[in-house]
Amino acid sequence: MTVEEKYMYRCLQLAQNGRGFTSPNPMVGAVIVHQGKIIGEGYHRQYGKAHAEVNAVNSVKDKALLKDSTIYVSLEPCSHHGKTPPCAQLIIDNQIPKVVVACLDPYPAVSGRGIKMLQDRGIEVSVGVLEKEAQALNRVFFTAQTRNRPYIYLKWAQTQDGFIDKERCDGEKPQPTPISNEFSRMLVHKKRAETAGIMIGTNTAVNDNPSLTTRFWYGKNPVRIIIDRQGRIPSGYQLFDGKVKTIIFTEKDLYEKQSDSVIYIRTDFNESLFENIFSILKSHKIDSVLVEGGRELLQSLIDIQMWDEAYIETSNACFGKGVKAPDIRGYVLNKGHWGTSEYVHLSTTDTYKII
Ligand code: AOF
Ligand code: ZN
């Protein structure tokens, strides 16, 4: 490990403290080093609040040392006036002579301009230290910026013999059959807190009457996103309780039912359905979506390869027959443990593999 990598690892570590609070901004960490000693550090804590560099500079007790220090940042310092002033200007104003950056900011208003702004003032800039790791950490941000769609997580629990639900007799009242264990269910709520949107299809909504809120973990609720082509979800359902924003994509004209918390978006259900839905979600600042079912929706996304990561929990139970789990064979890259149940972590792209 080089000296530069050592400090950049610390930046990546700090950046992760912002997980779940920075969206749709990236997680960013910064460290200030003076003669081999860290004299300040900071990270982007929350969307709309101070950037990592500002917090790092503010944490330095003896500001006179800045003139002889190096600042390490896990993302190119910004050059634009967004919700906060440009970080490149802050570095210039504090006369920090050297900047080490992990990766460029893909945000079009910045991309390369932050680096140029610093270099134009004679500041020494080096880019690319732990670049892949920094991009992987912010794979949600990078995907949203470069692909005009949110980062898509697929999630389901299946039995050992490959079913996600029991077979139901005609007329039997549908109800969810738990497959996940208590521990992994808690972790799903952590994931919900860290994801901007949560998506399900009509059948899951109608059968389960889910609330899709974050209850077993501290953090925000994801925006609820439902695909309900025919407008079949009964109005008394939890999705309409007004506690969280719900966006419904439908073919029907349901605007008169719209309220502050329930938004209907009329959509053509043609071959570009998902491309359209995800580009609309991106324009609503939703940079990541957790797809929690059902089979039809999950399989459609797998078939058109519109997904980035999958969390599949396999329990010890066997159903013998029922609703078959989505078929995702061919994509296994990574297998790990998620709670006490086994899960398989899959990815369509090597670039965004988990670190
Ligand atoms: C940095 N350091 O810690 C972060 C950066 O609206 P604003 O002012 O918060 O700007 C948001 C954009 O700034 C965001 O899209 C990304 O390009 C960059 N994020 N930049 O120099 C940071 N979080
Ligand atoms: Zn900034």
UniProtKB/TrEMBL annotation:
Alphabetical GO biological process terms: riboflavin biosynthetic process
Active site: 53 (proton donor)
Catalyzed reactions per annotation: 2,5-diamino-6-hydroxy-4-(5-phosphoribosylamino)-pyrimidine + H2O + H(+) = 5-amino-6-(5-phospho-D-ribosylamino)uracil + NH4(+); 5-amino-6-(5-phospho-D-ribitylamino)uracil + NADP(+) = 5-amino-6-(5-phospho-D-ribosylamino)uracil + NADPH + H(+)
Presence of keyword Metal-binding: yes
Record flagged with keyword Transmembrane helix: no
EC number assigned by the record: 3.5.4.26, 1.1.1.193
Gene3D superfamilies, per the entry: Cytidine Deaminase, domain 2, Dihydrofolate Reductase, subunit A
Residue ranges annotated for the CMP/dCMP-type deaminase domain, each copy included: 2-125
Cofactor requirements of the protein: Zn(2+)
Pathway annotation: Cofactor biosynthesis; riboflavin biosynthesis; 5-amino-6-(D-ribitylamino)uracil from GTP: step 3/4; Cofactor biosynthesis; riboflavin biosynthesis; 5-amino-6-(D-ribitylamino)uracil from GTP: step 2/4
Keywords: Hydrolase, Metal-binding, Multifunctional enzyme, NADP, Oxidoreductase, Riboflavin biosynthesis, Zinc
InterPro entries registered for this protein in UniProt: APOBEC/CMP_deaminase_Zn-bd (IPR016192), CMP_dCMP_dom (IPR002125), Cytidine_deaminase-like (IPR016193), DHFR-like_dom_sf (IPR024072), Eubact_RibD (IPR004794), RibDG_C (IPR002734), Riboflavin_Biosynth_HTPR (IPR050765)
Binding site for substrate: 192, 212, 215, 292
Residues given in the record as NADP(+) binding sites: 157, 204, 208, 294-300
GO molecular-function terms, A-Z: 5-amino-6-(5-phosphoribosylamino)uracil reductase activity; diaminohydroxyphosphoribosylaminopyrimidine deaminase activity; zinc ion binding
Co-factor remark: Binds 1 zinc ion.
Binding site for Zn(2+): 51, 78, 87
Pfam families: dCMP_cyt_deam_1, RibD_C
Its biological purpose: Converts 2,5-diamino-6-(ribosylamino)-4(3h)-pyrimidinone 5'-phosphate into 5-amino-6-(ribosylamino)-2,4(1h,3h)-pyrimidinedione 5'-phosphate.
UniProt record similarity statement: In the N-terminal section; belongs to the cytidine and deoxycytidylate deaminase family.
Protein name stated in the entry: Riboflavin biosynthesis protein RibD
Organism of origin: Dysgonomonas gadei ATCC BAA-286
